[in-house]
Design a protein that fits this description.
367 residues, mainly alpha, MetI-like fold, 15 helices, flat
């Protein structure tokens, strides 16, 4: 063994790179023969279709609010219809000379929503801020105060109505869903049966039926001469519908919390509500953040169904704007793309916020 010298082997490069764009392409787009063929086919279709789409949407598009220019030979998308009809699309049948009021009201409500999503504003006075902003919103929209002319709710429409219905439905549906979810897990048969009947009854019919009953059938059971505003009836219908679906999502989170934690809380002498507030609900809600946000997004898009009860929200206002003008009626595609962009902006923002909330809720599990 004398005279033996250890000579280390020179390090060699890995046979396959695991980092960088080439590795990403190999893993995600060319991982196997079937994936590679699909990538080539889809890539070819995109290369063929995207130039045509760009020519139609941008290069050959007409941007001027002139219907004749949109009908010219070789003309692409007619974005002039948005420039011509955007006020009617965004504000519906609200009086033209008073449309600054829904603009200010919507800006206030949107600022409140953004502030409520920021941790620095999570204080006890936030509830009072919600009450104040909502009071200002209705005062501006309805009027009949401080010299503002009165505008009935059936003239509200467009983006302000969409945001109002979605926001109030979310705010009111969440606590109701929380109580219903707890009620379905209650040991009291009467409460458990009532909550179960409510959830199964509401989930057994489509939202359009709920809106129809709230708008047309509910007034038939009211005393003669007594009527509730259609906006309130629709808002209650959407809230009850959304709460039933959200209650099942929350109940799934409640069932995922280990039973041993509840037993440990009882051993420490915590009451039922203390156990739910401090131990069960924080964990349960953290686990179902994606499901809750999915319900919020669905609720936001379902506001388009209120058109059946003659409330012209964003999508209904588009139909109102184009169907009443024969010159711009052929350019509905551009109008729907404009509406789709607005819906996508709101829904994608909610999705991003959901990811942030989920990340914050899972910080305690990180190691």
């Amino acid at each position: 063994m004398t005279g033996y010298t250890f000579n280390p082997i020179e390090p060699r490069r890995a046979p396959v790179r695991t980092e960088g764009p080439v590795a990403w392409l190999r893993t995600n787009l060319f991982g196997d023969p079937m994936t590679s063929v699909s990538t080539i086919i889809i890539g070819g279709l995109l290369l063929w279709y995207i130039p045509q789409l760009l020519n139609w949407a941008i290069f050959n598009a007409s941007w001027r609010p002139l219907a004749d220019a949109c009908r010219a030979d070789g003309a692409g998308a007619c974005w002039g219809v948005i420039a011509e009809k955007y006020r009617l699309i965004l504000f519906g049948r609200y009086p033209f000379d008073q449309q600054w009021r829904p603009l200010v009201a919507t800006a206030l409500l949107m600022a409140l929503i953004v502030a409520s999503c920021m941790r620095m504003f999570w204080r006890s006075w936030l509830v009072l801020l919600w009450v104040g902003v909502l009071a200002c919103f209705f005062a501006l929209m309805y009027g009949n105060v401080v010299g503002l002319s009165k505008v009935e709710t059936d003239s509200w429409g467009g983006l302000p109505l969409t945001i109002l219905l979605a926001t109030l439905a979310m705010v009111m549906a969440f606590p109701l869903a929380l109580l219903v979810a707890l009620g379905k897990r209650s040991n009291l048969p009467a409460i458990r049966s009532f909550c179960t009947i409510y959830v199964e009854l509401i989930r057994g019919v489509p939202l359009i039926s709920v809106l129809f009953m709230a708008s047309f059938m509910f007034p038939l059971f009211m005393p003669v001469g007594f009527s509730i505003d259609v906006l309130i009836r629709v808002l209650v219908g959407i809230t009850l519908f959304a709460a039933a679906y959200m209650a099942e999502v929350i109940r799934g989170g409640l069932q995922a919390v280990p039973k041993g934690q509840v037993e440990a809380a009882a051993t420490l002498g915590l009451s039922y509500w203390q156990t739910q507030r401090k131990i069960v609900l924080p964990q349960a809600l953290g686990m179902v953040v994606p499901g809750i946000m999915n319900n919020f997004i669905s609720m936001f898009m379902d506001t388009s169904l209120v058109t059946i009860v003659s409330l012209y929200e964003l999508l209904g206002a588009l139909g109102l704007a184009l169907n009443s003008d024969a010159d711009w009626r052929p350019f509905k595609i551009e109008g729907y793309l404009f509406i789709a962009l607005i819906y996508f902006g709101f829904c994608f923002s909610m999705s991003l916020y959901s990811r942030w909330i989920e990340k914050q809720a899972n910080k305690g599990k990180a190691r």
